[in-house]
User: Fold this.
Amino acid sequence: MSYKHLFSRALSAAPDRLHFAAHSHHLWPDASYEGHMRAWEDAAALADHKWGKVMGPIWAEVQGHIARELSLPDPATISFSSNTHDFLLRIFSAIEKRPVRVLATDGEFHSFRRQMARWVEAGEAELVTAAPDALANEAEKGRYDLIFASQVLFNSGALMGDIRQLAALADPAGPWVVIDGYHGFMAVPTDLSAVADKIFYLAGGYKYAMAGEGVCFLHAPADFAPRPAATGWYAEFDDLALPPGSVGYAPDGRRFLGSTFDPSGLYRFNAVQQMLQAEGLTTEKISDHVAALQNQFLAAAPFPQFDLLNAPNGDRQARFLAFKGADAADMHDALNAENIVTDVRGDVLRIGFGLYQDSDDVEKLLSAIAAI
Assistant:
């Protein structure tokens, strides 16, 4: 089945392109354009008063969509920022002791890796890394203040084990468990209902939520990190009448807010969610569509010289296939020369599959690889 009609603007803007990087800059559906225009129209019509709408019904609708997707019991635990790095800074700032003892997988994304390396360099943190399958055992040794792990590793596409094992260790007094869900949110069906009171979960709209940049979110459990030291004035929206010198915080997820932001991503997110609901497209259904394309691709055995790092096993699966080999960069460049977009991380070629592709696109990709 084809869903290309939902992406007519993006596909017609570059009709000769094959975009197999849905795990990176996911193409935007037409609904996101309509949402973006609504943000502009509200800014024009409401001017200063737009914030009442943004922080009211628009905000609440996005929270509701995310809470439903993740089976979170309380949408109010969700806050927003332009990127997930902001949330890392604020969570870290709420830990009072120094250095902060941090445990992470050895495959975290560059924003975490770089920031943590600088904190270690500055004496703010001590970092231990472990392979994903050894993380829980290391965490159980009980000597960490912060445990950080990706739900789906960005490089290999491997999925981490049961989040509940890490969540069982979490405590308001430490350790705090943070799950980076950027490659999992709306790619892997995720139910956080059993751990919502224990873990932080952060992700965003840039990838599988198809809403573009600027609409990242954090679920923060109620009793954890009540007063982040890195904070903006939006975090005390309920307490603007406090006496001078007081630093108040919202009683819910908004305690992690910063300051003035671009709300257009929230509009795009809502518009895309409305489209998905109208089309009956759940994460499970989109995953089935993607799995069929992946299986079609793999059935042709296109890369005998590469090792597939995340072969499908009939269970949950990342939305991209990761091929490791010495020729990964060369293959990426050769495909790029044919206007076929993939991406490469060192010696790993990543090919992402999404809703805007169909079986004909896969056949074109296979033909191009054969010719190369």
User: Anything to note?
Assistant: The chain has eleven helices and 13 strands.
